[in-house]
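Proteins fold reproducibly. Look at a concrete instance:
___
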Amino acid sequence: MRRAGLCFLAAAIFLFGAGDGPQAAKSAQVLRFGTDWKAEAEHGGYYQAIATGIYKRFGLEVRLRQGGPQVNQAALLAAGRLDLTIASNSFLPLNFVKSGVPLQAVAAMFQKDPTILIAHKGEGNDSFAALKGKPIMISSDTRIGFWQFLKQKFGYTDAQIRPYTFSVAPFLANPKAIQQGYLTSEPFTIERAGEKPVILLLADAGYSSYGSLLQTRRDLVSKHPGLVRRFVEASIEGWISYLYGNPAAANALIKRDNPEMSDALLAYGRAMLKKYGIVDSGDAKKLGIGAMTAARWKNFYETMVKAHVYPASLDYKKAFTLRFVDRKFAMPH
């Protein structure tokens, strides 16, 4: 089952200590990259860049370390044991600024956060507005994550919250049930059980969080910008190849790293990424895949300031840099 609450990793990641410093120049072509979960279609572009030699063509040897429920990739990144990682949403880079951790987002491979709410058909729950006042199963982290957006935009209240067990069994057992989910995961399981659910993508309702953000340490950005740029551009090419070309090479590596992945689930995940424009919509159509804008970061930050998630004094601009994106490199098809 796909992760649901990755908004607020522990801030005390300096428990790892200083760790390894920035890579020496002689080994700068090797990049250690940590994903945000076990291998899946949402990592397809990165695996494709490995499997088809795109990273090698950019002069890089990328050593990918998959994430998981007990893996704190951000801690490894801050300690110098990884060079880049994926931040699942826009909260994470802002949280690091708030905590004084020198990490920074350098690209947003997902223009839309794939977070969804799921409901049953025929119950009058086919819009976000219709869910106001109704019980919704969400995780504890979600209370201080996208739930704050829903409260502001649609007038939801905490009285609606019901515990989410990270299982679709309670949903399937109750036709009135509504729960959170991930576009490429829970709907697949529900469809396999014989039902096509109502899928409400938060991004299409104005939720401005990015997804699959590439992040690194600020010292790597300042000392080795060319290395960061090559990784970003190669990853962009990997996503174009995975979405518009033959994904078989990436899928084979994904299944090797995560045997729980089936061909059917990988095909479903890729199809949903394409159907909903997760990678290649919005600003990516004008500025290229990986696009970020200062205006969108400001919108997300100010929304969460209103929700009292962040102080109004936070220097939120430290959370990201536009140095490596918005260059119309490898435009969407």
Summary: Residues 4-28 have pLDDT under 50 and may be disordered. The first strand starts at residue 30 and ends at 34.
